[in-house]
Amino acid sequence: MVLSPDDIHNKEFSTKLRGYNIDEVNDFLEQIIKDYQITLKQNKDLQERLDASEGKLKYFNELKDSLNQSILVAQEAADKVKTNSKKEADIITREAQKQASDIVSEATDKSNQMIDEASQKAKRLSVETDDLKKQTRVFRQRLQVMLESQLEVVKSKDWDQLLSETNTADYTEIQHVLKEDNLDNDPNPSVNSESAAEITEAAQGETPVADGGDAAQDQTVVIFPDDDSDN
């Protein structure tokens, strides 16, 4: 049992012959009581401080545990946020790639369609150009044949003989023969030697011929071949 200051103060000692001086013992006990009271007070203060420290330690330990738990929760939340963010980023990336692929595919289809249309137009233009060239060649050939035919008529000896004759009757007969030959060979059935003869007789009856050369020039009829004759 721990002694208290009162226990020390109330302690009584028995006396013996030639014992200690009572006053000195009492004074020393008083001093011990004072020191003991101081020690007890210090011990009490230290105990209170120890209890307070232990309370703070307990609080800090609990706070540490709470902080650790919060850190774990925050870490888990951060991991979840990171995972969700990664998933969302992957989804956004896939959607963006899909949209980009769709845009590229659509642009490719449109460009291919435009290229096909342009190619078809170019082919049509090429065909039309070839047709025009063919038609132009055919027209040129027909024109050439017609001009050569007319040139042969102009260069024929009948013209020289016709121009050398001064007799009106002979000229009329030659003209009549030339017209019959040309008109009978003409594919147009409306033009023949009989109609030419009628025209010649009408011309001789209406206009007297004074000069054989001028009359021949006035009554000369040039027959152009039809374009279909080349075929």
Automatic annotation (TrEMBL):
The keyword Coiled coil applies. Residues 185-195 have a biased composition (Polar residues). Residues 29-56 form a coiled coil. Its main location: cytoplasm. InterPro entries: DivIVA_domain (IPR019933), DivIVA_fam (IPR007793). It is found in: Cytoplasm. Residues 180-231 are annotated as: Disordered. The keyword Coiled coil applies. Keywords: Cell cycle, Cell division, Coiled coil, Cytoplasm. Belongs to the DivIVA family. This is DivIVA domain-containing protein. It comes from Lactiplantibacillus plajomi.
